[in-house]
Amino acid sequence: MANKEVLTLEEACQYTGISRNYMYKLTSMNKIPYAKPRGKSIYFERTKLNAWLLGNLKQ
């Protein structure tokens, strides 16, 4: 998974530590960058996921 540029929902949950249910909630509210080609599986670009994670830092 470390070299993959695109992650599945399960991989993104594992990578971020976010639960599957909360990840679905984030995608349904368009709060996280994702792709859903052909209306089926949800995918995440690692670079966009990293930027989203870092953008949510509190100082």
Shape: globular
Helix content: 40-55%
Helices and strands, in order, run as EHHEH
In the CATH scheme, the class would be Alpha Beta
Rg (C-alpha, Å):
11 Å
The rounded distance between the terminal residues' Cα atoms is 30 Å
CATH level-two architecture: Alpha-Beta Complex
Structure summary, number of beta strands: 2
What structural category arises from helix and sheet content?
mainly alpha
Strand content: 5-15%
Mean pLDDT score: 91
InterPro entries: HTH_17, SinI_DNA-bd, Tn1545/Tn916_Xis
Pfam families: HTH_17 (PF12728)
Protein name: Helix-turn-helix domain-containing protein
GO molecular function: DNA binding
Outline the structure in words:
The chain has 59 residues and is mainly alpha-helical. It has a single domain (6-55), classed as Molybdopterin biosynthesis moea protein, domain 2 (Alpha-Beta Complex), CATH 3.90.105. Helices cover 46% and strands 10% of the residues. It has a two-stranded antiparallel sheet. The longest helix has 10 residues, at 46-55.
Any key phrases for this structure?
Molybdopterin biosynthesis moea protein, domain 2, 46% helix, mainly alpha, two-stranded antiparallel ribbon, 59 residues, 10% strand, 3 helices, Tn1545/Tn916_Xis, SinI_DNA-bd, DNA binding, globular
